[in-house]
Amino acid sequence: MMKGVRIVVVLLVLAGLGWYGWLKQQGKPAEDVYNGWVEGEEYRVVAETAGKVKEVLVKEGELVKAGQVVAKLDDEAARLQLALAQANRAAAEARAGDVKAGSRPQQIAQAQAQVRALQASLQGALENLKRLQSQRQDVEELVQTGGATADQLEAAKAAEASAQAAVNSLKAQIDAAREQVRLLQAGATSYSLSAQDAQVEAARQQEALAQLQVNKARVVAPVRGVVQNILLKVGELANPGSTLLNLVDQDRLYVNIFVPQSQLDRVQLGRKAIVEAENGKLKGEGKIVYISPQGEFTPKNIQTREERATQVFKVKVEITSGGSSGFKPGQAVEVRLK
Question: GO CC terms for this protein (predicted)?
Fold first, then answer.
């Protein structure tokens, strides 16, 4: 009988030592293992401009790269605006180039020829004025002798005045033409150069704005992630801010675990963890990045220690490596705190 008791005691001791050794090998007690599921930061991929959905280039569940075009909106009007802005910019640059290059010899020669032509016209106008002045004097003498009427004298004076006005006009035109020659020979002023530069810059800004509108018709993924759901279809109208699809960031996956209040002293921000799925076939490292300050499933009045022990606190474990090795949002995992 005593021999049997001794055997049982030995077996119990060996079992206890084996259990202790297993725990020591694991490094942490069994209650440091928690279950949860993989989640990810979700992004709303929105339209930045209005337009009909022309193409949807991805499918739900598809993994996309950051910057990848996921949808296209109708951009016909935006492209027409861009073409107009490009033409205006080219014209502004051409005008500025002409001003900076200075006047061509042909332009100066044409202006000088204009001066000479006006001078020739003035010479003819002066001769005509001299003739009409002589006629007016003759009519005045005839009026005194009765050989001409007062009306004839008024007509002669009017003709002389008209000729004088023509002479004055030609002199003013000659002065303006000479000034034009001087400006052409002197070249552009700093003011005119600055004005042309300002016009070119304004045209370029308008072109850049038009190009931006064209670019906005191409909707791109902000991060590498998995397409969760597509909300707008081809042909539907998107307004600025409309959500086209939802995307889960594949590089910022995490697991929410729920730790009983009695075990809260074992979790600290920054504590490392092992995240496993598929019976250990898929592993990744993680760390605690958030501990909820409030318990969940808490009764209104907590009276006993047992009731307080039923409280659980949400703890967020970010997967720091292995996220690109197969973990997917919604996947059940086991989290083992180190």
Answer: plasma membrane
- Produce one character per residue of 188-205: b if its CB has 16 or more CB atoms within 10 Å, e if not: beeeeeeebeebbeebbe
pTM above 0.70, yes or no: no
CA-closest candidate to residue 261, choices 292, 300, 229: 292
Residues in the chain: 338
pLDDT tens profile 54-92? 999 999 989 999 999 999 999 998 998 999 899 988 988
Superfamily of domain 29-66+226-337: Efflux pump adaptor protein, beta barrel domain (2.40.30.170)
Domain range summary for the chain, segments of one domain joined by +: 29-66+226-337, 103-187
